[in-house]
Amino acid sequence: MQKSSKILNFEFCLSLILITLGAVMAALALELILIPNSMIDGGMNGVSIILNTLFGGSLGVIIFIVNLPFLILGYKQLGKKFVFKAGYGMVLFSILLEVFGNYEPLINDTLLATVYGGILLGVGCGIIIKEGGCLDGTEIVAILVNRKKSISVGQVVLCFNVVIYGAAIFVFGAERALYSLLTYFISYKVIDMVSDGLNSAKAAFIITDDGTEIASEILKRLGRTVTVLSGEGIISHGDKRVLYTVITRFEVSILKDILNEVDDSSFVTVFDVSEIIGNHIKKTPNRVKVEGEDRQIL
Q: Residue 123 and residue 29: Cα distance in Å, rounded?
């Protein structure tokens, strides 16, 4: 158990290092490439840039304040580790924006800024998403909406951004707003490549001795239904439970947290799902049944 704890601590520290790298890249793209060319990011960060342009003040502070309510919301719904990573990334991102604000822009050409700013921003955000964090509160809202409705994370984020880029027309002009929208599509595609997709569904097979508690936690934290199958170990000759569930890319890290907390001896395989037919998302019920056992979910 001590060895397992050391491995988890190493993985967590490595994850924070990668989130730091992602935040540096995203802040550099925003402060030294996009903002000097009057372009904005999407989501609440885009809202913050608009507010900063209209009223002044510290962009880093505005971004943190605007995203703070979403962190609090995520803490109640998505678990401590996810919110810690997201909060760490957002705080570091805000600080780095202030630091990079003291330097001269890297690119002064609008087209080059659109392309390379979008690529750099996409790589940075993609790394952070892959490590189980995020830089923008709309992503947290999108995950929560995705649990309750048959709407993908990417679709929710896109709806937010349509409104935000529409507002940007009145602040920066139609041309700059369109360049910003192009930057968004570039960064979105890069994020898709880096993190295996914002919307991509993942199927998880979990082999364990008793899946009751794992199934309960998946239903409680992720709002996902779990199918329980019976299995038998060839070597151990013991009865096994095979849990099958479908989650989003965002939720893989939360699933790992659940397994580490509940049963770190379970065997798990996660793979891509090309298409989903039917609704695999349910509202969390008060009770869950696994193999005839009725368990209360608090």
A: 10
> Distance (Å, rounded) from C-alpha 220 to C-alpha 233?
28
Instruction: Please give the sequence-ordered ranges of beta strands (E in DSSP) within the chain, or none if there are none.
Output: 201-208, 227-232, 239-248, 267-273, 287-290, 293-296
Whole-angstrom distance, CA of residue 146 vs CA of residue 199: 10
Token look-up 């507010």 returns 51
Q: Record the tokens describing residue 182, joined without a space.
A: 């192009």
Give 265-290 pLDDT, tens digit per residue. Answer: 778 888 877 656 555 544 444 444 44
Q: What distance, in Å, lies between the first and last C-alpha atoms of the chain?
A: 28
- The answer to whether the CB of 248 falls within 8 A of the CB of 154 is no
The model carries a pTM of: 0.65
CATH of domain 201-296: 3.30.70.120
pLDDT at 291 over 60: no
Give the pair of three-digit tokens for residue 123: 């790589």
**Cα–Cα separations (whole angstroms), residue 98 to 1, 22, 24, 82:** 42, 16, 12, 25
Q: How many helical (H) and strand (E) elements, i.e. helices and strands, does the chain have?
A: 10, 6
Order of strands across the sheet that contains 227-232: 227-232, 239-248, 201-208, 267-273
**Residue 157: which of 247, 43, 40, 26 has the closest Cα?**
43
- 226 contacts: CB under 8 Å, gap ≥ 6: 211, 214, 215, 218, 219, 243, 244, 245, 290
Domain ranges of the chain: 2-195, 201-296
